[in-house]
Automatic annotation (TrEMBL), chain A:
Pathway: Glycolipid biosynthesis; glycosylphosphatidylinositol-anchor biosynthesis. This is GPI-anchor transamidase. GO terms for biological process: attachment of GPI anchor to protein; GPI anchor biosynthetic process; proteolysis. The active site is at H140, C182. GO terms for cellular component: GPI-anchor transamidase complex. The keyword Signal applies. The gene is PIGK. The keyword Membrane applies. PANTHER family: GPI-ANCHOR TRANSAMIDASE. Belongs to the peptidase C13 family.
From TrEMBL, chain B:
This is GPI-anchor transamidase component GPAA1. Pathway: Glycolipid biosynthesis; glycosylphosphatidylinositol-anchor biosynthesis. The gene is GPAA1. GO terms for cellular component: GPI-anchor transamidase complex. It comes from Oreochromis niloticus. SUPFAM superfamilies: Zn-dependent exopeptidases. The keyword Endoplasmic reticulum applies. Heteropentamer. Part of the GPI-anchor transamidase complex, consisting of PIGK, PIGT, PIGS, PIGU and GAA1. Interacts with PIGK.
């Protein structure tokens, strides 16, 4: 019957599992000669906004000292292409963490949600267990670390632990991690939380190279990996069905000189079935129906049919945050004996004193 | 038991030391010289590279268009200079103001200790004119300086013209993050010293100047321009500054990078780079370039207007335009573009230049030798002195071989005379040194009264006279020895020990500050310190000692320097040049605080006198 079909479709309706999208875009460099990192991040920001994620769902962390730098011959602009076709700074950039606020501590607090109560909403990552989060990092990195603003570093172990905290606090449904730095693949080696897919611009021991110098401005404008990734993203529109396998093919060694890498073993779904817009856009699925549906039964999950005889993937579940049943059915604890209170002691002393006062001391020997 | 605490082993070590002392010293000396000569061999050098991340590569677009107009301005400047008969202050002020700079002047005057050939008067008065281009959006915390000297006659007019042309072009750009100060200084180094002292509120040399009305923040880098012709064939880079200090190597790297980008021929020490390092002539060319740099650094005088900036930790260099007979000529617009590129890159700096080397030698503009590679050459020479000192110490402490106990006792009583006995020669030598330092200037008036010479010549000849008079000392001072230890073998040994250690410390400290000066002094003084004893043949050794004394070293260096520059001089001209070098050294010391003259007069000369004393020990 129609109700059954719609029920089954409704089950498929939520197959991707997410209901909202977030993006955390971080540029970890400052100073004029790192112009290209800011241009990288702003270009990704533009694409993500174009595909539908609003500013309230983007946490943008930039040193933001490029557009108004005294050395910029085109003040108030940041260009990503040599012919200066696109000013990625524009007039509607919302930078949430700027200047010296881009620190490792702030980044980890944003991810894990441990922010002081006075933090404004625009600086928080208010994701839930149905959020797909895109995390993009760019800057200078090395084997196992990423340099933040010339003064500190974040290691791949810290990052993996932060993601595990996010998983345990149910702060994401699926996570896409993209990093464009030298030796970027070392940053995703240590991840161990489920539902994370990672891409990097170069392998351990390789440098990510910059793409275009601009002689009028006097700096390199963009890095290669992000440049070709953006060329790829330009073809994506909110309704496109391109999947992650195409993203993995972006910037082969002939164009990028470094070898981009990716990691999908922690991800539940097959990358071929993951749409680009699952992470880069904010797509609301709409299905029109003319009938009313009585949704009294909970939606059953579709059974995963093993394809080509593959093993059933282990189904992860959340650890119980508050084990109520254990608390209810617990036996009461034996309380330890404590000596009586001071009040009781004082009362008994008073009674004894009154007794001996009345009846005389000679009665003491009868008691002791 | 350890090597040094085991008596048997110690005795064996000491006997080996005393037996092999002379051969090891000779080997070390030749090894040091060979190491130094090998520094210019190209496989032992490193290619220059940009170390500063903020400066990056030469990735800028230079668009300076107005070379011809700059030359026309230079001609106007020349005309006004001739009309006024000095620095055309009013014309410069008006011109800079028209170009949009904030213009200020500074007047200064200096009483010279004696008039030298160039000035021919005791008091030098002048005015500096400078204009500040304020950065459009930056706070006034940092500055860059471009300077051109106002020289008498026809020189450096084009430099001032180009400076004004660049000022106008730079004024129209909005990407400056530092203030740029355009300075035209009068009387070359004297004016520059006055300006720097006024800028930094120091007064180290006793000059009187009017305080600066306008300032620009702490100076990060400075370039001085010397351009005397409309077209040039090559650009020469001058790095050596006061007391042998050099700017950061990144400045030279920046210059070389832009020379290559724009395609201008660039030289250092006036010599072009050659590619055939494996041939003999190629290697000798590199050695000549390096020796020129060593001689210039050893002289301790600033070889361009930039030399005085280095003392304030401001990296500076001088760029000289050279017009020699070559086919390919470069015009003023190209030079302007090169300077524009360099200034745009210096503009990108976030901190002072500090990533690259401060101590280096350059056998060519694209190769360098850093301090870690050239110091062992000096170390090998210093080791000779230490070995000699050890040898003397051993000789002083071994009791003389005796047959009877009685004789041995008496000998041992007079065995080590102690340090006080050699105080007399020390004091007398240093007093002579003080006389050499102070008397020439003090007694120039009396000298001029009694002899028909000019003041400069009087000063120089007095210095030479005192120097030669010191040679007579050993014969006259024997009477003044307290505790007559003259005659004992140990007396001169103690004196020589002290003298050798003194020389080692002196040369070591000198080499740390000015490697070239230390090395050249070591080349001549170390052999004489090693071999001199009272027992060598007197006449021959006296002759050798005089030849290796600092004054004669200077004389030979003057002739050698002229040879290296391919302008050999006859003996007459060489002698006059030598006299002028001495007078210039004395003048530099009182004007700018150069340390070469006091070092030689107060420390090296007394040390040499001690060895002269040892030679004539009775």
């Amino acid at each position: 019957c129609a109700l059954h079909v719609i029920c089954c479709n409704a089950g498929q309706f939520f197959s991707s599992g997410h209901t909202n999208n977030w993006a955390v875009l971080v540029c970890t460099s400052r100073f004029w000669f790192n112009y290209r990192h800011v241009a990288n991040t702003l270009s990704v920001y533009r694409s993500v906004k174009r595909l539908g994620i609003p500013d309230s769902h983007i946490v943008l962390m930039l040193a933001d000292d490029m557009a108004c730098n005294h050395r910029n011959p085109k003040p108030a602009t940041v260009f990503s292409h040599k012919n200066m076709e696109l000013n990625v700074y524009g007039d509607d950039v919302e930078v949430d963490y700027r200047g010296y606020e881009v620190t490792v501590e702030n980044f980890l607090r944003v991810l894990t949600g441990r922010l002081p109560p006075s933090t404004p909403r625009s600086k928080r990552l208010l994701s839930d267990d149905r959020s797909n989060i895109l995390i993009y990092l760019t800057g200078h990195g090395g084997n196992g670390f990423l340099k933040f603003q010339d003064s500190e570093e974040i290691s791949n172990v810290e990052l993996a632990d932060a993601f595990e905290q996010m998983w345990q606090k149910r702060r994401y449904n699926e996570l896409l991690f993209i990093i464009d730095t030298c030796q970027g693949a070392s940053m995703y080696e240590r991840f161990y939380s489920p539902n994370i897919m990672a891409l990097a611009s170069s392998q351990v021991g390789e440098d990510s190279l910059s793409h275009q110098p601009d002689l009028a401005i006097g700096v390199h404008l963009m890095d290669r990996y992000t440049f070709y990734m953006l060329e790829f993203l330009e073809d994506i529109h909110p309704a496109s069905k391109t999947n992650m396998n195409d993203l993995f093919k972006v910037c082969p060694k002939s164009q990028c000189v470094s070898t981009p890498g990716h990691r999908t073993d922690l991800f539940l779904r097959d990358p071929g079935s993951v749409l680009i817009t699952d992470f880069f856009g904010s797509v609301r699925k709409v299905e029109l129906t003319m009938d009313a549906i009585n949704l009294t039964d909970p939606i059953k999950q579709m059974e995963e049919n093993p394809v080509n005889g593959e093993e059933q993937k282990e189904v992860y579940s959340y650890a119980d945050q508050l084990p109520v049943s254990e608390i209810i059915h617990q036996k009461p604890k034996q309380k330890d004996w404590h000596p009586p209170d001071g009040f009781i002691l004082g009362l008994w002393t008073l009674i004894l004193l009154v007794f001996f006062k009345t009846y005389g001391i000679k009665h003491l020997k009868h008691i002791f | 038991m350890g090597l040094l605490s085991d008596p048997n082993r110690r005795r064996a070590l000491i006997s080996m030391l005393t037996r092999l002392n002379a051969p090891i010293c000779v080997v070390c000396y030749f090894a040091g010289v060979a190491w130094f000569m090998g520094l210019a061999f190209e496989p032992f050098t490193l290619r220059t590279y940009m170390s500063e991340n903020a400066m990056g590569s030469t990735m800028v677009e230079e668009r300076f268009p107005a070379g011809e107009r700059a030359l026309a301005t230079g001609r106007e400047f020349a005309a006004h200079k001739k009309k006024v008969g000095g620095m055309p202050v009013d014309w410069l002020v008006k011109n800079m103001q028209d170009r949009g700079l904030e213009v200020f002047t500074q007047s200064f005057s200096r009483t010279l200790p004696f008039p030298d050939e160039n000035k021919e008067r005791y008091i030098v008065k002048g005015t500096n004119v400078y204009g500040i281009l304020r950065a459009p959006r930056a706070p006034r915390t940092e500055a860059l300086v471009l300077s051109a000297p106002c020289s008498p006659g026809d020189s450096n007019n084009q430099a001032v013209g180009l400076l004004l042309g660049l000022a106008q072009y730079f004024r129209n750009q909005i990407y400056w993050a530092k203030d740029i100060i355009f300075l035209v200084n009068e009387h070359d180094l004297i004016g520059m010293q006055a300006w720097l002292e006024g800028y930094h509120h120091t007064n180290t040399t006793g000059m009187s100047w009017s305080p600066l009305q306008g300032r620009g923040g702490s100076i990060q880098a400075a370039l001085s321009l010397e351009l005397s012709s409309d077209v040039i064939t090559s650009l020469d880079l001058v790095l050596e500054g006061l007391n042998g200090q050099l700017p950061n190597l990144d400045l030279a790297n920046l210059f070389y990078a832009f020379c290559q980008k724009i395609g201008v021929l660039c030289t250092i020490q006036g010599k072009l780079q050659r590619n055939d390092w494996d041939s003999v002539s190629g290697y000798s060319h590199a050695v000549q370039t390096m020796m020129l740099m060593v001689m210039k650094q050893a002289s301790g005088r600033p070889w361009g207007d930039h030399g005085l900036f280095l003392r304030y930790h401001i990296e500076a260099a001088t760029i000289k335009g050279v017009n020699s007979f070559r086919q390919y000529k470069t015009d003023a617009t190209t030079i302007g573009r090169l300077l524009e590129g360099m200034y745009r890159k210096l503009n990108n700096l976030l901190e002072r230049l500090h990533q690259s080397y401060f101590f280096y030698l350059m056998p060519s503009l694209s190769h360098f030798v850093s301090i870690g590679y050239y110091m062992p050459a000096f170390g090998l020479l210093a080791v000779i002195l230490l070995l000699r000192a050890l040898d003397l110490w051993v000789q002083l402490n071994t009791p003389p071989s005796t047959t009877e106990d009685g004789v041995a006792d008496i000998d041992q009583v007079r065995h080590t005379p102690g340090v006080l006995s050699v105080l007399t020669p020390l004091v007398i030598s240093h007093l002579t040194g003080v006389a050499l330092y102070a008397l020439p200037i003090r007694f120039q008036e009396t000298a001029v009264e009694h002899f028909p010479v000019s003041e400069t010549e009087a000063v120089v000849l007095t210095a030479i006279a005192i120097y030669t008079a010191g040679l007579a000392l050993p014969h006259n001072t024997h009477r003044y020895y307290i505790m007559c230890v003259c005659g004992t073998e140990q007396g001169w040994r103690v004196l020589k020990l002290i003298a050798v250690l003194y020389l080692a410390v002196l040369l070591g400290c000198t080499a740390l500050i000015n490697f070239s000066l230390g090395f050249i002094l070591a080349l001549t003084l170390v052999p004489l310190a090693a071999f001199v004893t009272p027992h060598v043949p007197k006449v021959l050794s006296a002759f050798i000692l005089v030849i290796l004394s600092p004054a004669c070293t200077l004389l030979f260096s003057v002739f050698f320097f002229q040879e290296l520059q391919e302008m050999p001089v006859s003996f007459q001209d060489g002698w006059l040049l030598y006299l002028s070098v001495i007078s210039q050294g004395i003048l530099d010391h009182s004007l700018y605080g150069s340390l070469v003259y006091p070092l030689i007069a107060l420390l090296v000369y007394p040390c040499w006198l001690l060895f002269w004393n040892i030679l004539f020990w009775k």
